[in-house]
Write a structure and sequence with these properties.
Layout (H helix, E strand, L loop, with lengths): L13 H4 L1 H11 L4 H5 L5 E4 L14 E15 L6 E8 L5 E7 L3 H6 L5 E11 L2 E5 L2 E4 L11 H6 L4 E4 L8 H14 L9 H7 L4 H9 L4 H32 L12 H8 L6 H15 L5 E6 L5 H14 L3 E5 L3 H15 L16 E5 L5 H12 L3 E6 L13 E6 L7 H8 L7 E6 L5 H7 L4 E5 L9 E7 L4 H16 L3 E5 L27 H10 L7 E4 L5 H12 L5 E4 L12 E6 L7 H8 L9 E7 L6 H11 L3 H11 L2 H4 L2 H4 L14 H17 L7 H10 L2 H9 L1
Parallel strand pairs: 4-6, 9-14, 9-15, 10-12, 10-13, 11-12, 13-14, 16-21, 17-19, 17-20, 18-19, 20-21
Antiparallel strand pairs: 1-8, 2-3, 2-5, 3-4, 5-6, 5-7
Helix pairs in contact: 8-9, 9-25, 9-26, 10-12, 11-12, 16-25
Protein name: Probable DNA 3'-5' helicase RecG
Organism: Micromonospora humida
GO molecular function, one term: helicase activity
């Protein structure tokens, strides 16, 4: 590179660190430019003399540990000529790890002498009960050594008190990344600071150059904290600016108002409803009705506890749109749920949904079900009803998105269980309207406020917290099958007692099973020696021949043909089956008020929100519900603690916070759905709630003054980098 071409954040790494190293960084870590490397932040920081908790390492994990050599031993190899060097390293936690090196390497024995500290990287394996790293990469700290891994320029990286440990690959260990980062920081001028100086001063944020240098080579813990706070702010601010801009643009889109109609279908429906709406349902109904009346598209998130009555709220909104001459579509994640919505709405609407039939009321509409399993003739008839506008309410799965499903006047899209759908699917349904339709997104998974602010910050949010009258409490208990097998025997007896009392039960398994219906290859034991998860097709016959012998048992899972799934679900709903052995296909929406007990087998294999959703299938009638979480997880393990937490509360918001603690936040932020590199990597939705709230306030104020950030071009460019094009599109559509 000539002096006329100073290095910038866009400079290719090949020009800075050499072609071979740059190729490894690109191929293994997707790092191509100086800017990419600047934003490849350390995963953690070690301190010389402090332990890195070797005892917590998992077999199969690719790790980098800071440890001290304790002793070395050389012994001849049994199977071939040569010697084996075994080096025991440890930390202050008392944990030890064996490093094994094959071949005659006397120089390595001299280098790895007791007392030396180093960073050791490799894959954790286990041999005769001892954890080890075979032939690990390493760099020694402090005094120079004889091996090339201890080259002086690499050792220099770790001279400070805080040692950065980077997300790395076997071919590109952390110290190679650190060396390359040093080259970039010493060569490349930091980017222009995108944040307005007044905002930096008000929020006491360090400059971007200082932040980038200190996060890689911290001079103290205090400076590292300030650097991380500034870079987290940039991430939160970029997301909030994107969401606030999106909300502002959406408010300017035209949409057809759908005002309420006195004496219409909605009034008739309210009059025939066999129960009173809860105050929460009425309040949310007023909010939605007002949104539908405006000339701009509603974009509202309706969240509520399992069984809080979201479907009735959505149906009332759909009827308001039908009264105004439009159509409403509800997108459900499974055919089982779509079919159940169809049956439930026909029951609730009665003659209001029988247009063209004897006994229908004046102005009645039709409710059509469109799924992939419809026969050709039934499909043609249903599609004609939809296209000609005779079907005011259309229910279906992703089959609604296919070409050939045309609406006469789509005015409202209701998305049930939002987290089950990809962004593109929701957007495809919206695109079927001439103008942007109103959108109501529903979820029974309570969303922590920080997540709502960060992921759904462009949606107005309504919450149903009350349960309708007649809903019964659900008791939950953990059944420790390994420690107390008698408890599991008692659980099956409890199922028989409930059936004898005229009730029904669910048994939920994590897997379908082997054979033609299997979703996957037969699983083997995992790296920790755990048996495969229990499967529906294996458990059902064991129950029928054993503890539940004589009871009417049905099987339900996602690989059954659609008509068979529907028949099984109908049989269970009609009381023709006593026990339903199922996968999580029953997780959402399934409503059988007579089901009072659920046994979840291998409950530790499910997530917190999944377990909360599942247990919501019982206690939906007047009899109390019981959920038994069966697990072999040891007492005191994190899996067992998670189950104990689920059993201890039915507060979905508390459980959502717990779920957020345990999940990778990248999933929550949509990183796995965007499928591309993102610079959002420091922000913690759980720990940084106050910072996210402050960033939201600043974003609202700035966008009010400068909607397209025309007066802040550097900030606009920074937002485009941090929230890349595909992620912006994700937020835009979501």
């Amino acid at each position: 590179m000539t002096t006329a071409e100073p290095a910038t954040v866009d400079t290719a790494l090949t020009k800075l660190v050499g072609e071979r190293t740059a190729k490894a960084l690109a191929g293994h870590l997707d790092l191509h430019t100086a800017g990419d490397l600047m934003y490849h932040f350390p995963r953690r920081y070690d301190e010389r003399g402090e332990h890195t908790d070797i005892r917590s390492l998992d077999v199969g994990e690719q790790v980098t540990v800071l440890a001290q050599v304790q002793r070395t031993a050389v012994r001849p190899m049994r199977q071939r000529r040569g010697n084996l060097l075994e080096v025991t390293v440890g930390d202050n936690s008392g944990g030890t790890l064996t490093l094994t090196f094959f071949g005659n390497q006397a120089w390595r024995e001299r280098e790895l002498r007791p007392g030396r500290w180093g960073l050791f990287a490799g894959k954790v394996t286990e041999f005769r009960g001892k954890r080890q790293l075979n032939g690990p990469e390493y760099v020694l700290l402090g005094e120079g050594g004889e091996g090339e891994a201890a080259a002086s320029e690499e050792v220099e990286e770790f001279a400070g008190a805080l040692i950065p440990v980077y997300p790395a690959a076997a071919a590109v260990p952390t110290w190679v990344i650190a060396r390359c980062v040093r080259v970039v920081l010493d060569t490349v001028a930091p980017p222009d600071d995108p944040l307005p100086a007044s905002l930096r001063a008000e929020r006491k944020l360090v400059g971007i150059g200082t932040a980038l240098r200190e996060i890689h080579r911290p001079s103290s813990k205090e400076e590292l904290y300030r650097a991380r706070r500034r870079l987290k702010w940039d991430e939160a601010f970029a997301v909030q600016l994107t969401l606030v801009q999106r909300k502002l643009r959406a408010a300017s889109w035209p949409a057809k108002p759908r005002p309420a109609k006195a004496g219409g279908l909605l009034d008739a429906f309210d009059a025939r409803l066999p129960y009173e709406l809860t105050p929460g349902q009425r309040d949310v109904g007023v909010e939605i009705a007002a949104d539908l009346t405006t000339p701009h598209p509603m974009h509202r998130l309706l969240q509520g506890e399992v069984g809080s009555g979201k479907t009735v709220v959505a149906l009332r909104a759909m009827l308001q749109v039908v009264d105004a001459g439009g159509q409403a579509a509800l997108l459900a994640p499974t055919e089982v749920l779509a079919a159940q919505h169809h049956r439930g709405m026909l029951d609730l609407l009665g003659p209001l949904a029988q247009a063209g039939e004897l006994g229908a009321v004046e102005d009645a509409t039709r409710v059509e079900l469109v799924t992939g399993s419809l026969g050709a003739a039934a499909r043609r008839r249903a599609l004609a009803e939809v296209a000609q506008g005779r079907a005011g309410i259309v229910l279906g799965t992703h089959a609604l998105l296919y070409e050939g499903v045309d609406f006469a006047d789509l005015g409202l899209v209701v998305v049930d269980e939002q987290h089950r759908f990809g962004v593109e699917q929701r957007d495809a349904l919206r695109a079927k309207a001439d103008q942007p339709p109103h959108v109501l997104v529903m979820t029974a998974t309570p969303i922590p406020r920080t997540v709502a602010m960060t992921v759904y910050g462009d949606l107005e949010t309504s919450t149903l917290s009350q349960l309708p009258q007649g809903r019964s409490p659900i008791a939950s208990h953990v059944v420790p099958a390994a420690e107390k097998p008698a408890f599991l025997d008692r659980a099956w007896r409890r199922v028989r007692e409930e059936v004898s009392a005229g009730h029904q039960a669910y048994v939920v398994c994590p897997r379908i099973g082997e054979g033609p219906a299997a979703e996957e290859e037969p699983p083997r034991e995992d790296d920790n020696g755990r048996r495969p998860p229990l499967a529906v097709t294996e458990v059902a016959p064991l129950l029928a021949e054993g503890p539940l012998q004589g009871l009417r048992i049905g099987v339900l899972h996602g690989r059954l043909p659609a008509d068979e799934k529907d028949a099984v679900m109908r049989s269970f709903a009609d009381g023709d089956l006593d026990v339903l052995v199922a996968t999580t296909v029953v997780e959402v929406g399934v409503n059988v008020p007579n089901a009072t007990v659920m046994i979840v087998l291998d409950a530790d294999r499910f997530g917190v929100s999944q377990l909360h959703q599942l247990r919501g299938r019982v206690g939906r009638g007047s009899a109390p519900g019981l959920c038994l979480l069966v697990s072999e997880a040891a007492e005191g393990s994190s899996a067992r603690e998670r189950l104990d937490a689920v059993a201890s509360t039915t507060d979905g918001f508390k459980l959502a916070e717990l779920d957020l603690e345990q999940r990778r936040e990248g999933d929550v932020l949509g990183a796995t759905q965007s499928g591309r590199r993102s610079h959002l990597r420091l922000l913690s939705l759980r720990r940084d709630a106050d910072l996210i709230r402050d960033a939201r306030a600043e974003a609202v104020a700035l966008v009010d003054q400068d909607p397209e950030l025309e007066r802040h071009p550097a900030l606009a460019a920074s937002v485009a980098t941090l929230v890349d094009e595909e992620r912006a599109e994700y937020l835009e559509k979501g």
